[in-house]
């Protein structure tokens, strides 16, 4: 069985649309730590109880006991089924739905994502072995060049740096031996089609830097020229310094950052991410102990990059080479960061140096000092606009500077954080002092620009049926959810943990139809009317699988669905099995994508939150808990079989030999349960 092509569509849509933007388009969001909160529209919410987790791209109202991902939010908000929510969000993101429809792929096809992942890993590993072995003269030159750049063996291995031989067909031949066609090599971005037929390698005689996704799977490659090898073939210029893999089904430059899979935990710990310009900068930074560094991949920072970065940190430091081009790049992205309510700092290195050079020459402590002193991007912009300007007499330049800065500030979202609001206030005061204009006049002009932008957005929404459809109010006739029970909340009830937040329950807005307009529209492929919250050992199992996805691969092989007491557990295991059969990773993100039922999505988000809160309090590792859980299931199975056998003894008239055999089987089962020997 293979997952439908819709999985790839869902994956792309989720990466392209931020849940904060979708919720914030109709509800007023307030920052709350690393999350956002708002008043839940599905009950009479006296204080914000709807939580939006931007990092995990999930939402939850603990009072209504509803939650999930961006798809289930639109289903809940608009009263629609999953396909409609998917199509609406795809249209909002500008993604063509029909190109994903009706594609039935098989392993080995250039349209099959699992095939491309396997091909990419095979070649990436082969390039790594070429550099690791150092058997050829060219690979030795590559090792020497890497060492000359100050990169040691530990970090070469950490980033899986490799070498592509001076061959037109190294990768193509390797793939062909493993039954991957030339078309697969081309679709993965590893080869280029010849005009007369056949394929040749995209990368030759270069240092190879694999680009990994957040599941740590290689999805593309970047190659850096090695001057000595380029010179050997008579190409003293070496061609392009960097060659990046093309856009493929696996890789989109605007959605990926080099090194993020290694840096994300450090970014979460520090609350800060450093964005650099090249692969070697990131590797050198990591080697120097700067673990929160990433790099763009042959393209400028864009909105999709910022959405990705926001999931891990609200503070971004743009590390620029000390040249004019670097300053221009900072100017180009400033408004994007302001609109996204991200704290952007700009670190400009001394002219002529890049991060790798600076760290090698000046060390980690001096680099850290520059990072700490990096000015806020708005302040950086003001300094740039007023550099060399006579603010007393050059009226034209002053007017241009004011309009430019206020135009950027006008894009700060209404739900901006208190930190952003404070920065805007400080900027307005500094502008007032710098330009000799009262803060009142500046604020009046700012308000005019905000109103103009608001009017422009309103017109766009009216003229664009896609936006109107996505943000449409819920239909008047729709199924509704029952009001929450007034019984005391059970702390062991996975679907009833509002007590942890102690919300004001208030009036639930109960109507004849139920609670407000909260819907319970679900897919019809299973007995969803009998879905119940997970409890006991079933809940422990799926919490463990969510905490340690590697164990999910074991679970799909070893667990019998009949062990479960609820349809909820059976359906979650089935979802894991589908993902495993299709070669997908078994992370929470993938699980939420494959599930199209609101109740199941809510269950997964609830379990994930329980895991997060538990943190390191558990005395057992996930592996130990998993072993204990499996033992519990097996013991329960033995007890159930014993009960069936006893019932059979009590109700059936058995012959003496049959009764003796049955008693012996009961004894054997009991001995097995207590692990006693003959």
Assess the beta-strand content as a share of residues: 5-15%
Order of strands, main sheet, comes to 1-2-3-4-5
Overall tally of domains: 4
- Tell me the number of strands: 17
Q: Mean pLDDT score, rounded?
A: 79
CATH T-level fold name of the largest domain: Dna Topoisomerase Vi A Subunit, Chain: A, domain 2
Helix count, per DSSP?
A: 27
Q: What is the terminal separation in angstroms?
A: 45 Å
- What is the 3D shape? globular
**Rg of Cα set:** 29 Å
Q: Could you estimate the helical fraction of the residues in percent? A: 40-55%
Catalytic activity: ssDNA + n NTP = ssDNA/pppN(pN)n-1 hybrid + (n-1) diphosphate
Subunit structure: Monomer. Interacts with DnaB.
GO biological process, one term: DNA replication, synthesis of primer
Cofactor: Zn(2+)
What does this molecule look like?
The chain is an alpha+beta fold. It folds into four domains: 6-102 and 480-515, Alpha-Beta Complex (DNA Primase, Chain A), CATH 3.90.580; 113-248, DNA primase DNAg catalytic core, N-terminal domain, CATH 3.90.980; 272-455, 3-Layer(aba) Sandwich (Dna Topoisomerase Vi A Subunit, Chain: A, domain 2); 629-674. Helices cover 51% and strands 10% of the residues. The strands form five sheets. It has a five-stranded antiparallel sheet. Helix 5 (113-133) packs across helix 6 (137-148). The longest helix is centred in the last third of the chain and has 30 residues, at 622-651.
